[in-house]
Design goal:
Elements: H1 16-30, E1 37-38, H2 50-62, H3 79-90, E2 102-105, H4 108-114, E3 125-129, H5 133-141, E4 148-149, E5 154-155, E6 158-162, E7 180-184, H6 196-209, E8 212-216, E9 242-247, H7 249-252, E10 260-263, E11 269-270, E12 273-274, H8 275-286, H9 292-301, H10 304-330, E13 335-337, E14 343-347, H11 354-365, E15 367-368, E16 370-371, E17 382-386, H12 391-406
Parallel strand pairs: 1-15, 3-6, 3-7, 7-8, 8-9
Antiparallel strand pairs: 2-10, 4-5, 9-10, 11-12, 13-14, 14-17, 16-17
The structure holds pyridoxal-5'-phosphate (PLP).
C-alpha cells in the first residue's frame, strides 16, 4: 500500500488564514447585520492600472491570431520581461544582475516554498520569529524541520531568530550556524526594514560560513525612506551568497493575476555547483512558465506610464498605512511598521493574547486583523493590520477602533 509523506502530518493545525476565515464565518452567521471590515489578509483591493489593462487586452488579441499567437513560454521567462527587470530593478540601483540570472514565475509564494528543494534535507534552516509561515511549512513538508514541540510552538531542527521590539523587530545573527537563512524586508508581518549596514552583516556572515540567504523582497516597492536597500544585491558580496525573490502582487496589484521572479546569480556556487543550474533544472522540469499575456502585463509595469501608475497605487496604500499608524497611536496603542511597509504591527493592550484581541476587535469593532501568534511564538501579544483595504474602509475601521478605545 502507498505510504504518505509523513512530514505533512507534522504541520500544526490548519493554515492561519483558514482559522481566521472560520471565526469570521461563525461571527457573521450569528450577526448577519454587522458590516465587517477586513484588514487581515495581505490581499490588495484596488484595480489594475490602465497601462497594465491595456497590455493585457493587446496581448489577449495577439493570442487570437496565428501570426502573433504564443504557446509555451521560454523556461526562464520572456526576454522582454527579464530585460525590463534587469534594467529597472537592478541596473538602475547599481546592481549587476543579468537577465539570464532572472527566473520569471507565477509569484513569490511558489518560489519561496519551492526553492528549498535544491538544498539537501539535512541543512539547518533559520527563520525569523515571527515569520511568513510559508518558509517554515515548506521545510516541514520536505522533512527538514524535525519534530514539532506543541508547547513551544517550534520545530526542533529549525533555528528561530526572535525579532524583538527592543531591536526594532530585526533578527540577530544566530549563535548556531544556519545553512539556509530566510530574510524578508520590508517584513511581513512586522513591517520592519533593514539598513544596508545591517544587511551587509548578514551577507558577510553567509559568505564566511557558506550559508545561503533566501531574501524575500516582495514588499520592496513600499520603501519610502532614502538609503534603505531595495535589493540584497546592493550589498557587496551578495551575489555569492543570496537568492532574491520578487512579486508583482503588492507593487502592481497582481495577486489575482500572478507574476513574480527569482534571481539566482551565476556566482552563487556551493559544493562546486552553480545553484543557478539546479534552479534552472527544477524550473524546466516542474514548471511551464507564466502566461505570455501576464508577462506582457508585467512588462507594462516598467513602462514610464506604468511606473507612474504603480507609484500612485503604492501612495494610495501608504496613505492608509499612515492613517492606521496615526489613528492607533491616538487611541493609545503601541505601534510599529507602516512607514516603509504596508503592514502595521501593534502590541495588544493590557497583555491580551493575540487571538483574544482578534475576537475583541471582531466583536466590538467588526474589524478583522491577523493575530501575531499565527506567525510564531514571538508574535504572541501582537496583531497585524494591513494597509491594503480601500481608503474608506480603512478610515471607518480606524475610527471604530478609536471609538472603542475611548469608551
Ligand atoms: C513575504 C511574502 N512573500 C511572498 C508572498 C507571496 O507573494 P505572491 O502573491 O507573489 O505569491 C507574500 C504574500 O503575501 C508575502 O507576504
Amino acid at each position: 500500500m502507498v505510504k504518505i509523506n509523513d512530514n505533512y502530518t507534522k504541520l500544526p493545525g490548519s493554515y492561519l488564514f483558514s482559522d481566521i476565515a472560520k471565526r469570521i464565518a461563525r461571527y457573521s452567521e450569528a450577526n448577519p447585520d454587522k458590516k465587517i471590515i477586513r484588514l487581515g489578509i495581505g490581499d490588495v483591493t484596488q484595480p489594475l492600472s490602465s497601462s497594465i489593462i491595456d497590455a493585457l487586452h493587446k496581448s489577449v488579441d495577439e493570442m487570437a491570431d496565428a501570426d502573433t499567437f504564443h504557446g509555451y513560454a521560454p523556461d526562464l521567462g520572456y526576454e522582454f520581461l527579464r530585460n525590463a527587470i534587469a534594467e529597472n530593478d537592478y541596473k538602475s540601483r547599481g546592481c549587476d544582475i543579468r537577465p539570464d540570472e532572472i527566473f520569471v514565475s507565477d509569484g513569490a509564494k511558489c518560489d519561496c516554498a519551492n526553492i528549498q528543494e535544491i538544498f539537501a534535507t539535512d541543512n539547518v534552516v533559520a527563520v525569523c520569529d515571527p515569520v511568513y509561515p510559508v518558509y517554515v511549512d515548506s521545510n516541514v513538508m520536505a522533512g527538514r524541520a524535525g519534530d514539532y514541540d506543541e508547547e513551544q510552538g517550534l520545530f526542533d531542527r529549525i533555528v528561530y531568530m526572535p525579532c524583538l521590539e527592543e531591536h526594532g523587530f530585526a533578527p540577530e545573527i544566530p549563535e548556531k550556524t544556519a545553512d539556509l537563512i530566510y530574510l524578508c524586508f520590508p517584513n511581513n508581518p512586522t513591517g520592519a526594514v533593514i539598513t544596508k549596514d545591517e544587511l551587509q552583516k548578514w551577507v558577510d556572515y553567509a559568505n564566511e560560513t557558506g550559508s545561503v540567504i533566501i531574501y524575500d523582497a516582495a514588499y520592496e516597492a513600499y520603501i519610502q525612506t532614502e538609503g534603505i536597500p531595495h535589493s540584497i544585491y546592493e550589498c557587496e558580496g551578495a551575489k555569492t551568497c543570496a537568492i532574491e525573490l520578487h512579486s508583482f502582487s503588492k507593487n502592481a496589484g497582481f495577486t489575482g493575476v500572478r507574476l513574480g521572479y527569482t534571481v539566482v546569480p551565476h556566482e552563487l556556487v556551493r559544493d562546486g555547483i552553480e545553484l543557478h543550474s539546479l534552479w534552472a533544472r527544477r524550473h524546466s522540469t516542474k514548471y511551464n512558465g507564466a502566461p505570455y499575456i501576464i508577462q506582457r502585463a508585467g512588462e507594462a509595469v516598467y513602462s514610464t506610464e506604468g511606473q507612474k501608475e504603480i507609484k500612485e497605487l503604492i501612495a494610495y496604500y501608504m496613505r492608509n498605512a499612515s492613517y492606521i499608524l496615526e489613528g492607533l497611536k491616538e487611541a493609545g496603542y503601541s505601534v510599529s511598521g507602516g512607514v516603509d511597509a504596508p503592514y502595521i504591527w501593534l502590541k495588544t493592550p493590557e497583555g491580551m493574547s493575540s487571538w483574544d484581541f482578534f475576537d475583541y476587535l471582531l466583536e466590538n469593532a467588526n474589524v478583522v486583523g491577523t493575530p501575531g501568534s499565527g506567525f510564531g511564538p514571538h508574535g504572541e501579544g501582537y496583531f497585524r493590520l494591513t494597509a491594503f483595504g480601500s481608503y474608506e474602509n480603512t478610515v471607518e475601521a480606524v475610527d471604530r477602533i478609536k471609538r472603542l478605545a475611548n469608551k
